[in-house]
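Narrative of accomplishments. A recurring question from our advisory board has been how the design workflow behaves on a single, concrete structure rather than in aggregate. To address it, we present the structure tokens for one chain from the evaluation set, followed by the sequence designed for it. No filtering or post-editing was applied between the two.
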């Protein structure tokens, strides 16, 4: 099984594959990948030869089959890099406007990406500011491309773009769950208030912790609302197979079986990580039959010349097979805190020795979203946030269980676009208005751009 296919919590290796130690595997993986380069080059050249219209064999079933097989081999053995966002414009009020993507905040393990829409005239509808906290669970933040596209027409969108740990030099220091919470707080301060936070899956726990700490400090940059989507707030509720697996094995098993050092010549040489290729093994093993069938269909579509179907497959797997290494400290602390000790729902989670008290959350509105068929974060695990945040007024809380979707469908796909995203947009818009009235009445003044300033 795997914890975290498409955004849940960090993945674990397959329960069916014996794994003695990850220590030598990363080095072996790097050498194997390099050794396959000549074979990939040969396969690509052969594919081009049999697809060349000058070659009479390119029109035969034999030629098409050879070309398809070579393409399948090359795609199955390549290392997939960080995918591009591929968002250049969006529709705002029926008008197509360009989108400029820029980095507005940066630390060694994260960049904050701003999707700035370039208007010729300001839209009539209010445009709330939205911070989407992407999961650090193996895939890159571009996994949320569809999420961003759904919100862009009516929101000013920012996204956390987590950095592959193998690209971070050891001299930059460690990164753990406490650092993750610090990053969230630092980003909220950098954005200057008037912001709503959407935590997609794994970050639900650190986002709640950040909100509680900021509320306890009466921080003026506390978000107006937080939307938790398919997050493992309390994995004791309706536990899934992946929850049980993590609890059964315990943190020491993960430390000894999946943690290794980044090999030379990567920038993060000698950093302790949970490698992306091991996570990918966990992702694929969850639904091995489905992936085999998908690649079989790709082969047949290539032979038939069904370019549209083949292209959809390629786009999905270009994203799915692009994975990043996780810092060992973050991975192990997340497993221990969230899945083994259940520290947050028990009221025992600490941040740098300070207790995370969810009862301190009073001003931040709360919306939770779950999928009816979610097999990563079971139904009720995210909704548990309402039970824990006892001091948020009832009229500032809402929950939505989306019928007919699994984990991925909570934040992407047609039902997300048509049913979930509009609910989030309405909640954010209404809670933003209530928050402004409430905070202005409590003596928090605003800067010229509407951002919260320190209390008078």
């Amino acid at each position: 099984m795997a914890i975290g296919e498409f955004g849940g919590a960090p993945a674990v290796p397959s329960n069916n594959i014996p794994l003695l130690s990850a220590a030598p595997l990363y080095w072996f993986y790097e050498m194997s990948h390099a050794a396959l380069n000549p074979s990939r080059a040969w396969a690509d050249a052969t594919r081009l030869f049999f697809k060349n219209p000058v070659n009479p064999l390119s029109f035969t079933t034999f030629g098409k089959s050879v070309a398809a097989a070579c393409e399948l081999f090359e795609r199955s053995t390549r290392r997939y890099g960080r995918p591009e966002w591929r968002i250049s414009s969006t529709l705002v009020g029926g008008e197509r406007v360009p989108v400029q993507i820029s980095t507005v905040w940066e630390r060694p393990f994260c960049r904050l990406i701003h999707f700035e829409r370039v208007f010729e005239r300001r839209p009539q509808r209010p445009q709330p500011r939205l911070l989407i906290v992407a999961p650090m669970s193996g895939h890159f933040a571009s996994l949320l491309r569809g999420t961003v596209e759904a919100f862009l027409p009516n929101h000013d969108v920012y996204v956390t773009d987590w950095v592959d740990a193998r690209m971070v030099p050891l001299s930059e220091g460690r990164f753990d769950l406490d650092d993750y919470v610090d990053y969230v707080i630092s980003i909220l301060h950098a954005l200057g208030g008037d912001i709503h936070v959407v935590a997609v899956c794994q970050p639900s726990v650190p986002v709640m912790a950040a909100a509680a700490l900021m509320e306890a400090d009466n921080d003026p940059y506390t978000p107006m609302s937080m939307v938790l989507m398919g997050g493992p707030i309390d994995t004791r509720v309706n536990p899934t197979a992946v929850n049980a697996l993590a609890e059964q094995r315990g943190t020491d098993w993960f430390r000894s079986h999946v943690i290794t050092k980044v090999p030379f010549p990567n920038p993060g040489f000698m950093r302790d990580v949970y490698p992306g290729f091991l996570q990918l093994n966990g992702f694929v093993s969850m639904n091995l039959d489905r992936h085999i069938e998908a690649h079989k269909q790709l082969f047949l579509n290539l032979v038939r010349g069904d370019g549209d179907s083949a292209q959809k497959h390629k786009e999905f797997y270009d994203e799915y097979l692009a994975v990043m290494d996780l810092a060992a400290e973050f991975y192990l602390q997340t497993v221990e805190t969230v899945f083994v000790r259940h520290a947050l729902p028990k009221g025992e989670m600490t941040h740098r020795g300070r207790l995370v008290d969810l009862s301190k959350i009073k001003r931040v509105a709360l919306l939770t979203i779950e999928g009816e068929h979610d097999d990563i974060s079971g139904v009720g695990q995210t909704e548990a946030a309402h039970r824990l945040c006892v001091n948020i007024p009832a009229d500032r809380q809402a929950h939505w269980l989306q019928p007919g979707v699994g984990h991925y469908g909570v934040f992407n796909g047609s039902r997300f676009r048509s049913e979930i995203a509009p609910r989030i947009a309405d909640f954010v818009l209404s809670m933003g208005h209530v928050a402004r009235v409430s905070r202005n009445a409590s003596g928090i003044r605003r800067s010229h751009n509407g951002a919260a300033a320190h209390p008078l």
